[in-house]
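Quick one: structure for this chain?
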Amino acid sequence: MNRPHLSASSFDVHGKVAVLTFRRDDVRNELTGTGLIGDIVDTVKWCNGTRDISVLVLTGAGSAFSAGGNVKDMRDRAGAFAGSPAELESRYRRGIQQIPLALHAAEIATIAAVNGPAIGAGLDLACMCDIRIGSTHALLGETFINLGIIPGDGGAWFLQRILGYQRAAELTLTGRLVKAGEALELGLLLEVVEPNELLPTALRIAEMIASKPPITLRLTKRLLKLAQRQELPDFLDLCAAVQSVVQQTDDHLEAVNALLEKRQGRFDGH
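Got it. Here's what it folds into:
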């Protein structure tokens, strides 16, 4: 399968782990005028479509993870922020809102390696991932209200699922910035490491995840998402059905034998 065609990023594969690196440091990897929206969406779809990938890592090259939207374009009502209310609504739905839809539908595990500021939509992008690792240079903020706008990419949906309503409300309604240490205390970041250890740490976690049986990994990821919106009786019925499938896979038997024989499992996705 051909790799995704990218306009503002680079793409690397390490075994079953894919890494998408944003390469528009000239505008601090802002999302709304760089081609990064399409890069992210196309990469997630590509990863979903190949059984060779189990984890996707998102990170930024340069000083920022992502500064979100282009503030100068907001001021000038240009680019992604030009037009009538009807045109703006359509552009949000067909533009930046494609990122949360793509990541919400990601069958593979996703990790944000937050190398620097993740502001506005940049923070929301990190929150759309399953796991967030930050460097000591990370600076996070749900800053839309400071610009007189709302989180138009769905950030209010994601943030409170990570932090709970009260803390998400505080960060969203004040628009204040959070340094890496506080983000770790809040649970917004899983780990904080020195900048030179950021990608190695993200890859270490990614490779640990990618070493698991690929069919079961994707189904477990799906169940984690479904558990957020299903009632318990319905969810338990689904778990019973999924378990009956994975227990008949070759990888399940290999995993059991590997445990009993005290060795690493060798999984082929069957």
